[in-house]
Amino acid sequence: MMAYPERVLVTKIGFDGHDRGSRVVAAYLRDAGMEVIYTPPWQEIETVVKLAMQEDVDVVGVSSLATDHLIMPDLIAALRDAEMRHVRLIVGGIIPQNEQPELMDAGVSAIFGPGATSEEIVETVRKLAVEARAARETAEVV
Amino acid sequence: MSKKASNTNAVTLKDKQAEWKVRYDKEIGQDRTVVNRSGLEVRPLYTPLDWSDSRYGEDLGMPGELPYTRGIYNTMHRGRTWTQRQLIGLGTPQDYNERVRMLLQQGASAISLLPCNSGFRGIDCDESPLPLLGTCGTVINTVDHMDAALDGVPIGEISTAMNDPTPFTLFAFLLSVAKRRGVPLDKITGTANQSDYISHFVANHMFYRLSQPGARRVFVDHVKFCREHVPNWNPVSVVGQHMQQAGATPAETMGLTLSTAIQYADDCIEAGMDPDNFLPRFTFFFDISISFFEEVAKFRAGRRIWAKIVRERYGAKDPRSWRFKFHGQTSGVDLTQQQPLNNIARVTAQAIAGIFGGLQSMHTDGFDEAMACPTEDAARIAVATQNILREEAHLCDVIDPLGGSYYVESLTNEMEEKIFQVMDSIENTGGMYNAVDAGIVQRMIGKSALEYQSRIETGAEKVVGVNCYQSEVEDREVDTYRPNRDAMEAQVTAFKAFKADRKQADVDRALAELARAANGTENVYQKVVEAADNGVTHGEIIACLRRELGFGHPLMVA
After folding, report:
1. Which of A8, A67, B17, B471 would staple B135 via disulfide (CB 3.0–4.6 Å)?
2. For domain A7-141, which architecture applies?
3. How far is A68 from chain B (nearest CA, A)?
């Protein structure tokens, strides 16, 4: 058992504003007992990093329906620069199959396309939150 | 005598239906209650007990006459088929131009222009991350971009829809191009597709927004400007599509859309305009979901309600004010990434619902549109789908072919009632503008989105390839459109050079006048048009108005 509930930031970066998916996923995670920090669309990369840090989240979930995942590598680099390596990243929405390997290689832990169930998403986030906390402990020791 | 005979018939029918119901219940063996997306129970059989010809005059009438249930024109699709208006937007202006010419050659009868998401965000290409430019729309920041995009396109002869939110910079660029080419402004026809700023606050957060009062001001000025200078342009398109895509049910969507139209009409009247001057230029834009009969009923009911409102509430006397003109777009939410070619079948069913619903113009989605901008193949199939339905399936032969169906008429009446309930709830909170300010509409839509998703999760709502009939084999990969990054980089470089070369004094003066108008009583939109004429860019116009009128933060409610 975790000492306190998983903390997840659900957000959208880039230009797209279709937020139906991020809202539904945020509600699923909340209903599963997690602490969800939800932002409107259009967040700047720097804002996401700052929020992740201030809110001390375990997992950042980015929803992308209209190619905004193409700037995910920028977010990953910014988190690394801010020494937030332990935070786990998931992406949900419309990610063409041929662009998925690049995201996974860059450090995304999971990608959820349409048809992913709430159960799958909740389970994965739980697992990733455990990983994130373990990674943070290790980093602090070092 | 005849009256008595019909009474006897009615009793007989009632008895016969009761007998059938006993047999039905016995054979069906299990509870098969069906509820449509709007929450109305769908019965297994409809008969004259649900709707009968005795209601014909009151409920239906003839096409082109009140209450307009059967269509707004005397001849409907038999006289003139719907306009085939594909939503187009990709890459650079040159990429757009190639695609538009291909579609026109193929039978599209009007064009549309969807700008890049960076434009929706209110910024120019030089302020935008390169990977995101042109992926979902065309980069149009200046009059020159518009001119290139419409090269060889006869803008005085073809109708154009601009996906152009407040403050309508694309339209200003279009007017500048018309002036350059010597095309009189009364030859410019088409629709301001994204003029419905209220929908951008509640449902589609694609767009930068001016503050709600600022957007309201520019909206009314734009309507006034168009009525005075561009008489054949439709400055208002009330967009139900955004709300339905965001999760509102079909009945909620129609109710919220009509409440929005009421708000806009109220605001135009408040500004001193005559209803019969602007109402004929009001248009609507809807999603066509795959819930077939529900969509047909939604459109028929909406048409009837609008004709009633404009006469009773506004005293409109011109029949052109009574006509509920709408564009339909097949719903992207119903499309799936799984087994993507199945989307061709979905789009076909949606398109038929739109046609039977009596639409005036239509966009059919490409089968790959759940993934990205449609590729050329997908765009071609989408247009061909419309051609096949018209030419081969003969869907235009008969006007309102579902009219008189016990089911469809009964459903139309039930949807109408449900729509009125939504409208009443909005009216009770002081109208759409206030309801949005208070977050009431956002909450309604969010709740319905979550409920629908739960229905898919539990299997109550089946989606082929998603929660049933999943494929054993890996989904066939579809090509996804991505713009050429080198061409886009060249465009950004050229744009920077343009900004450095233009007459800065003209730009500064135009922006100063725009700012003054925003703070005074002059028509703000007139100044947007003049700014475009003077080489001011999209991003600069927006930045100025955002500074003067404020930014509109949407109220997010879960």
Report:
1. A67
2. 3-Layer(aba) Sandwich (3.40)
3. 7
